[in-house]
Fold each of these.
Amino acid sequence: MQRRKLAHAPFDISLLSLGTMTWGEQNSEADAHSQLDWAVAHGVDLIDTAEMYPVPPNGTTYSTTEKYIGNWIAKPGNRQKITLATKVAGPGRDRPWIRNGDPALTQKNIVWACDDSLTRLRTDVIDLYQIHWPDRNVAAFGNWQFSPALERDTVPLIEQIQAMATLIKAGKIRAWGLSNDTSWGVMRMMTLCEQHNLPKPATIQNAYHLLNRLFEADLAEVSHREGIQLLAYSVLGMGMLTGKYQNGAAPEGARLTKYRANFGQRYTRAVCFDAVDAYATLAKKHNMSLTALALAYVCSKPFTGSAILGATTIGQLQEQLAVYQTPLSEDLIKELNAVSARFSHPAA
């Protein structure tokens, strides 16, 4: 397994990582432990989770995913096999089950959330602690247009950074990162860290795949110049880029079949299906699967620190591990760019 160095963390990470957001919703604890065993046996050691998981979130299943992982970590020798990443949830939709309805990213709340995650994960230290989404008003989760009309009171960025610095100094986390953030957010954080001599964010976890290549613009430059690596999520576009939803198919148990009415709508726009058809045609022309094309594209980028794999079954993990290094020729890249130009980030 290839590894990527992080400029602002005391460890490196595997190019593929294991996502966990279905555990406790679509996957049982036994399923979760099987995936963990299989992943680490095949060189995948970065495990990414969040206090909010599983998704779609609700008060009944909140934090179940971390508990599943914690029970696996408690088995002798397992903690040493992984690099553990989790996230603190921020404000947004009404979720009264998170910190008694107070999800603002104050220093008190970040430390509180971290302590709770440490307990659930049954570990003394989290390797990478991430802000799941900004406390401030941003365009995200399928809405790419910033709206000043949505401005609200927000916790100062310096307070959030100081909370992370406090956790690092206390030995509760080793590094910290951002998620679902923007180039303005990253650069402002970096500037404040330099001004106050505080630890910089090591990673940014954003959606990145053939249906949403927005990261390749200003955030790619930020990544290159500031040494902040991308943890790419939804690398297969919520399963769209496996081709399993083509021609009106609705596989039983698949996420976009099960939750299509209220989750992941940005992936089911009509233009996304058209784009998937075009990419599938291109993959067939080059004698590869659509999954291989999509995953290899993400992994080929220099700014990709790790591509987060999401799977319901071991078989899906096996398929993804087998194809992530598929070579992409210059001609194929040109053809990919031509398809992207036609559809212009349909799931952004």
Note: The mean pLDDT is 96.
Amino acid sequence: MMVNMVHTDEKLARQAASDAVTGLGWRHVLGTLMTSVPVPSLVNAAEAGAAAIAACGSDADGHLRLDLRGDAVQLVLRSTAAQAITRLDVLLAEQISAALADRGLRTVPGVARRVQMLEIALDALDIWAIRPFWKAVMAYVDEGPPPNDGLMDPSGQGPTIWFQEMTEPRPQRNRIHFDVSVPHDEALDRIRATTDAGGVVVYDAEAPAFWVLADPEGNEACVTTWQGRD
């Protein structure tokens, strides 16, 4: 059944969005709803993508993004107009999962293609002095109006860039790090895998919002979730 009666732009809090879709095989990741659909071929991926688009009807353009591969389709829902997860996105997730189930396909996180999103964080003494450089060299656009200083790939393919203000130089510490946003129920497994690979947790006081991990030479990355941020 198409969504043609309930067109609500009501933004959902992180907890509400996560609770609404977790049982469907979708996950809340960095302000989006994401899932992966395992498929045996690129032809099947195209068919699954078409089914997802049809399930969204006229709302597909403003809410749905797809990435088709030979082993999986990655689906992302987020309201382009609201720049947030809305109640309509949850309804579309329900409809997509049902339409794919009718074709013997499943919406599942972390199977075939890992459900996650990547951000690049730059430490800066003067954010607005260095921001134009990164905007130009990456050919990015503003993520939102000021005071939002984030930059984003206009094609929606590359990682977003955000800036973290420093109060004093830190010459012995890396000033660019990755934020890896993962489903809330996968964070501890990701951290365990990282420490098994030689990493150490250097900061966890604000977990489960984020953990800071470092490699054996002190280069840092953060594993983040939506939790603890409302």
Note: Residues 145 and 151 are 10 Å apart (CA to CA).
